[in-house]
Write a structure and sequence with these properties.
Helix content is about 25%, strand content about 10%. The chain is an alpha/beta fold and about 280 residues long. β4, α4 and β5 form a beta-alpha-beta unit. α4 crosses α8. The protein is globular.
């Protein structure tokens, strides 16, 4: 069972295996149709598609951010439509180092499915390693996914004052309030520190070794217990990348504030911090 990261060589050995489900999650924040178009043009053989703004978001239930987390029943329906059930090993990938597919990784974990891994280096690594590709639309036979949400892995906005350590996963310039290309207000949640999700990757866009990741995160934690950490980002997507890396480092899976900055800053009465803390 692969639970965090998997490399292209291992995945290549399981192409065509009915017990393995591959999901392409390529996405462009500025062009929501670009990911699906890229998948239709070329993808890993057998890969189905899931979009951050489509299958991986839903009507607001636990949060009111830009990409609300779907209701548990909706998630079960989505996973079933992708062909996922309790016996399947799932591999997710994108072309941004795992920034978008990590959202699906987190959602499956949240619903109790542990056998899910992010393809290290994603689509770029797959092509660089000269692996097989195919084109055209792929639809898996529908399965029956049953799961139950683990509420301990999710934090809602009202719980934030009780969080011992809140970590912002966005670009440092967005965290510091120097720029804000998407949301209505620039800055970060007061008290949060910053760990940009891209710091989990090497120059080739692959995850750093677990010991390096563990060293980086341990330095951030200080005296805070790993299980008390909460990650957020702009809309509960790239924060999941930090959670993948944190878990791959051998640390207990931390929690996610899915509403993230887009929810927090939507209420003018909430305080905003800028600069470094």
């Amino acid at each position: 069972m692969y639970k965090t990261i998997i490399d292209s060589e291992i995945l290549a050995n399981y192409l065509g295996d009915p017990e393995w489900i591959i999901v392409d999650c390529r996405y462009d924040l500025l062009d929501s149709a670009a990911g699906r178009k890229a998948w239709e043009e070329s993808h890993i053989p057998g890969a189905v598609y899931a979009s951050v703004s489509g299958e991986l978001s839903g009507d607001p239930v636990t949060d009111h951010g830009r990409h609300p987390l779907p209701a548990p029943q909706t998630m079960m329906g989505t996973f079933s439509s992708l062909g996922i059930d309790s016996g399947k090993q799932v591999v997710v990938y994108d072309d941004t180092g795992g920034a978008f597919c990590a959202r699906l990784w987190w959602m499956l974990k949240y619903m109790g499915h542990e056998a899910v891994a992010v393809l290290d280096g994603g689509w770029s690594a797959w092509r660089k390693d000269d692996r097989k590709v195919e084109s055209g639309e792929i639809i898996n036979q529908r399965s029956s996914f049953f799961g139950r949400p683990n509420r301990d892995r999710l934090v809602i906005v009202d719980q934030l004052p009780e969080v011992p350590l809140l970590i912002d996963s966005r670009d440092p310039d967005r965290y510091q309030g120097k720029l804000e290309p998407i949301d209505r207000v620039a800055g970060h949640i007061p008290g949060a520190i910053n760990h940009f999700w891209q710091n989990n990757l090497d120059e080739q866009g692959r995850f750093l070794p677990p010991d390096r990741l563990a060293e980086n995160f341990t330095r951030l934690l200080g005296d805070t217990a790993p299980e008390d950490v909460v990650f957020y980002c702009g809309s509960g997507v790239t924060a999941c990348h930090n959670i993948v890396a944190f878990t791959h480092a051998g640390l207990p899976q931390p929690r996610l504030y899915a509403g993230s900055w887009s929810e927090w800053c939507s209420d003018p009465s909430r305080p905003v911090a800028t600069g470094t803390e």
